[in-house]
Amino acid sequence: MRPTRALLSTGLLAGVLAAGMAVALAPTASAGTTLRASAAEKGRYFGAAVATNKLSDNTYVTVLNREFSSVVAENEMKWDATEPQQGRFNYTGGDRLVSHARANGMSVRGHALLWHAQQPSWAQGLSGSALRNAAINHVTQVATHFKGQIYAWDVVNEAFADGGSGGRRDSNLQRTGNDWIEAAFRAARAADPGAKLCYNDYNTDGVNAKSTGIYNMVRDFKSRGVPIDCVGFQSHLGTTIPGDYQANLQRFADLGVDVQITELDVMTGGNQANIFGTVTRSCLAVSRCTGITVWGVRDCDSWRGSDNALLFDCSGNKKAAYTSVLNALNAGGSNTPPPTTPGSPTTPPPSPTTPPPGTGG
Ligand code: XIL
């Protein structure tokens, strides 16, 4: 909201108003113009996966700090990075990311405590109770080290099988017993009670056998008091997006957990910008969708190589996909209800089909 031209032309009043507006608008001066400010207007974070060796690249850091309010380590908090030898922990990369986040007003997602991939070789060689004990100790030690610094942990990553079974993926961790996931969540809660604890997976972009298997696990965990707070949807997407993407998020939210888009990237092509926009609108439409993370900053930072799957080109320029996300974040004004004056008439909400022009942010 801006003061009218008539008011501004009246000397003293204009001065008083201008001073007041400057103070009131200062925290959101970039609302509508960056992903982080526009997401914040909607009560969400907008994050990126970061490779800490790129924090010395000026273009990278400029875009990261301007556009993103959350970070996740692309590799530095995984098991092979944090416990390269059993019982010997290395937090160098993770600590570097956390301090960058703190210095720039960003929250941190922790990724990932237990996963079948990127295990240190010593863990790959273990099985049975030796592996179970080592895995739970890993969860306890890492979550304790980062205690108080992590908004949400991916406690377990990618534990469900692809295809139609809806069951668990075979892995060394799974072979320690079906209860390894709940044991991990309990250990994480004990180590860092303030962190939200997430289950995270891919190929869960609509209602399908895999996402339903995860849904049933989350419902079971909630019914038995296993501490789970959120489900991450990686959303590594191709050239299409399932029509029930939003409905799938909503059915998880209806179980009483938050949902987050955790590793978003989309294959380049005619639909890329539209798909990014659809994902953003879907998250905004689900009140328990607390934020979106893209899996890298520029196309050339992406693990998907030639897919050009991100929001910025290799020079750090905004792509059409960026504009699509920003417009989606800005559509429909702020979700934060404005202060109401008692007795003032209520304004009807804008029609969903005709967003008023110029109401971004
Ligand atoms: C990827 C990283 O981006 C790569 O640098 C690494 O070589 C392999 O892992 N799902 C996940 C992420 O949960 O941890 C993966 O990250 C991408 C797929």
Average pLDDT reading: 88
Kindly report the spatial arrangement of strands forming the biggest sheet: 1-2-3-4-5-6-8-9
Q: What would you report as the Rg, rounded to the nearest angstrom?
A: 22 Å
Question: What is the terminal-to-terminal distance?
Answer: 10 Å
Shape: globular
Number of extended strands: 9
Going by helix content, strand content and strand pairing, the class is: alpha/beta
β-sheet strand percentage: 5-15%
The number of helical segments is 13
Q: Would you mind describing this structure in some detail?
A:
The chain is α/β, with parallel strands linked by helices. The chain is built from 13 helices and 9 strands. It has helices at residues 5-8, 11-25, 35-41, 58-67, 79-82, 92-103, 121-124, 128-145, 180-191, 209-224, 245-253, 272-285, 320-330; strands at residues 45-50, 70-73, 107-115, 152-157, 196-201, 230-233, 236-237, 258-266, 289-294. The chain has an 8-stranded parallel beta barrel with strand order 1-2-3-4-5-6-8-9, surrounded by 6 helices. β8 (258-266), α12 and β9 form a beta-alpha-beta unit. It is globular, with a radius of gyration of 22 Å. Mean pLDDT is 88; it is low at 1-27 and 337-361. The structure holds (3S,4R)-3-hydroxy-2-oxopiperidin-4-yl beta-D-xylopyranoside. The site of (3S,4R)-3-hydroxy-2-oxopiperidin-4-yl beta-D-xylopyranoside (XIL) has 6 residues, from loops.
How are the elements arranged and paired?
Layout: H1 5-8, H2 11-25, H3 35-41, E1 45-50, H4 58-67, E2 70-73, H5 79-82, H6 92-103, E3 107-115, H7 121-124, H8 128-145, E4 152-157, H9 180-191, E5 196-201, H10 209-224, E6 230-233, E7 236-237, H11 245-253, E8 258-266, H12 272-285, E9 289-294, H13 320-330
Parallel strand pairs: 1-2, 1-9, 2-3, 3-4, 4-5, 5-6, 6-8, 7-8, 8-9
Helix pairs in contact: 3-13, 8-9, 11-12, 12-13
Bound molecules: (3S,4R)-3-hydroxy-2-oxopiperidin-4-yl beta-D-xylopyranoside (XIL).
The site of (3S,4R)-3-hydroxy-2-oxopiperidin-4-yl beta-D-xylopyranoside has 6 residues, from loops.
